[in-house]
Amino acid sequence: MEWFANWFDSEYYHILYQHRNDDEAHFFIDNLIRKYQPEKDAVMLDLACGKGRHSIYLANKGFDVTGLDLSEQSIAHASKSSHEKLNFYVHDMRRKFRSNYYDIIFNFFTSFGYFSKELDHHLTLDAISNGLQPKGIFVMDFINAIKAENNLVKAESKELNGIVFNIKRKVEKGTIIKSISFSDKGKSYNFEERVRGFKLHEMARMFRKHNLELMDIYGDYDLTPFNAFDSSRMILIARKIINH
């Protein structure tokens, strides 16, 4: 089983990342909507939606929203909030899902770069491009790999819900690797996260290959300009172009 399928479907993943709060998600979405002003009936996809915190907020604003995630447990939780304009499905982002359908596709909080094979990243971008309507918009919220690598915390411990998570980080062949070990109820666990540290020029090249033209690049959820050495995030806004 690939590391993300195992880790993201674990209850411990949600314990470790419980600090990702709704206020942060709402703030980011509000800024994006204010900037790009989608139509009131826009059709949106939240790709790798997790438990649906972004999807639910978008749907509450009146948009027609689909949430997709590989984790069955996350989708089961998110589906409790389903209604006529909000639907969730278990789905692998490497596979196409509806063609020329969405006005906007979101990929929040570094939900890309997980794969060991380059082909899988291209399959994902191809599926995203396929899912967008012509001139549709793709929003990718990714780590700023340069800053992340320059400021790597090699080891730390966090106690959450009575569990001590021991975390080690390293960079290996362009991939940021986080090893997570802990014990709970007398049992020891070891998980790993692996994210390719794609830089801006690499992303831009991959986007172009899949008819996604970069429009804007931001460095945080305030939508301030991106700086490769200082920005906390690398937020890419692209438009689907049609080659004739």
List keywords for this structure.
8 helices, globular, Rossmann fold, alpha/beta, 11 strands, 244 residues, 7-stranded mixed β-sheet
Describe the fold and architecture.
The protein has 244 residues and is an alpha/beta fold. The chain has a domain at 41-143 and 199-240: 3-Layer(aba) Sandwich (Rossmann fold). The protein has helices at 3-8, 11-16, 22-36, 53-60, 72-78, 118-131, 145-150, 200-209; strands spanning 43-47, 64-69, 86-90, 102-107, 132-143, 155-160, 163-172, 175-184, 187-196, 212-218, 233-240. It has a seven-stranded mixed sheet, sandwiched between helices. Helix 3 packs across helix 4. The radius of gyration is 18 Å and the shape is globular.
Helix and strand layout, with pairings?
Layout: H1 3-8, H2 11-16, H3 22-36, E1 43-47, H4 53-60, E2 64-69, H5 72-78, E3 86-90, E4 102-107, H6 118-131, E5 132-143, H7 145-150, E6 155-160, E7 163-172, E8 175-184, E9 187-196, H8 200-209, E10 212-218, E11 233-240
Parallel strand pairs: 1-2, 1-4, 2-3, 4-5
Antiparallel strand pairs: 5-11, 6-7, 7-8, 8-9, 10-11
Helix pairs in contact: 3-4
CATH class of the domain at 41-143 and 199-240: Alpha Beta
Put simply, the count of helices is: 8
DSSP strand content: 25-35%
Mean pLDDT: 94
Please provide a brief summary of the model.
With 244 residues, the chain is an alpha/beta fold. The chain is built from eight helices and eleven strands.
